[in-house]
Write a structure and sequence with these properties.
Elements lengths: L1 H27 L6 E5 L7 H16 L3 E5 L6 H8 L7 E6 H9 L8 H4 E9 L3 E4 L8 H10 L5 E4 L2 H14 L4 E4 L3 H9 L5 E4 L2 H8 L4 E5 L28 E6 L4 H16 L1 H9 L3 E2 L4 H22 L5
Parallel strand pairs: 1-2, 1-3, 6-7, 6-8
Antiparallel strand pairs: 3-10, 4-10, 4-11, 5-8, 5-9
Helix pairs in contact: 2-10, 3-4, 4-12
Length: about 325
């Protein structure tokens, strides 16, 4: 009996060592095929070019194609669900923004995923530069004038809402100023622009480089930027704090995540590769051109940002009594 147990133990140990060796070999050959980088937004905003710039750098560094897969829908939740179900082998990455990783979760009574349980944080990527824009036909050249105009026309100003983040920014703006703004939902920043340019919308919050160009051409008007400091893209545009509405506290952020239980060796490798990409001069120049502020991190720092922001969003959702269910 003892010999039988010893034999079984030896076989189990050999199987375990074989599995470990197989895993180590797979990781040493990583990446062994193209990497899929899923993003939950369509082209036209800031998320798509940011992802493509980083993907191109990673492709060059890792000598494998990094293919951007746009999967818009459900405020980024669709892309998160796809990434969650992928094998934890490092060949599927997720552009996980504040929308998918906090807002979409906080806004649902029964979310389909848990950011802490179902994903592996890898690295922060950056923060989009969001501006509050109005159509030039709106009689407001400052945020204060826009607020006064909104108060004089309660419920009559249409605000394009490309994602939950901008929706809650407008909610905070309205609550802080006592205004009544009409929310018009869209699937991303790009689809908002034609309606704003045609004056079917009066305002939107947008982070695309296209919008800043349109501001410079006089086709749109930027009233304030949702950052702690002014943006070099439009340095004459004040922050919301400077404009007198510091209560608008929710901010954009985005990071790179993998499926749950991604091996530590791959997390370390990917974090290092992303950090290298974000530090490249060509990447910095391209990010600056459309106002995306680079911000890398450790996996632990990204996890903390996600965790803390989820607490904030759940409180805001409770206070506003708003859900998507």
């Amino acid at each position: 009996m003892n010999r039988k147990r010893a034999l079984l133990s030896a076989l189990a140990c050999a199987a375990s060592m074989g599995a470990m060796a197989s895993t180590a070999l797979a990781q040493s050959n990583y990446p062994s095929r193209p990497i899929r980088f899923i993003i939950g937004f369509p082209p036209g905003g800031s998320a798509d070019p940011a992802t493509r710039i980083v993907s191109a750098a990673l492709s060059e560094q890792m000598r494998q194609p990094v293919i951007v897969d746009n999967r818009p829908g459900a405020d980024g939740a669709l892309s998160a669900e796809l990434a969650m179900r992928a094998p934890a082998d490092g060949h599927t990455l997720l552009f996980g923004s504040v929308n998918a990783m906090t807002a979409a979760v906080a806004l649902r009574k029964a979310p389909s995923y848990d950011p802490a349980r179902d994903f592996t944080p890898i690295s922060m990527m950056g923060r989009a530069t969001q501006f509050i824009y109005v159509h030039p036909g709106v009689p407001a050249k400052t945020l204060g004038e826009f607020i006064a105009h909104a108060k004089a026309n309660p419920g009559k100003l249409n605000c394009g809402i490309p994602n939950p983040l901008s929706g809650f920014q407008y909610i905070q703006l309205a609550r802080a100023t006592g205004t009544d703004l009409l929310h018009v939902p869209y699937k991303g920043e790009g689809p908002v622009m034609p309606d704003l340019l045609s004056a079917r919308l009066h305002s939107t919050i947008n982070s695309s480089g296209t919008a800043t160009v349109l501001h410079k051409e006089g086709k749109l008007r930027a009233l304030a930027v949702l950052l702690k400091n002014r943006s070099p893209l439009l340095p004459d545009v004040p922050t919301v704090d400077e404009a007198g509405v510091p209560q608008v506290t929710v901010r954009h952020w985005a990071g790179v995540f993998g499926p749950a239980k991604l091996p530590g060796e791959l997390v370390t490798r990917l974090n290092r590769e992303i950090s290298t990409a974000l530090g490249r001069a060509d990447v910095k120049e391209k990010f600056l051109s459309f106002g995306y502020a680079i911000e890398g991190s450790t996996p632990e720092e990204l996890a903390a940002i996600n965790r803390n922001d989820l607490v904030l969003w759940r409180r805001l959702v409770k206070e506003a009594n708003v859900t998507l269910d």
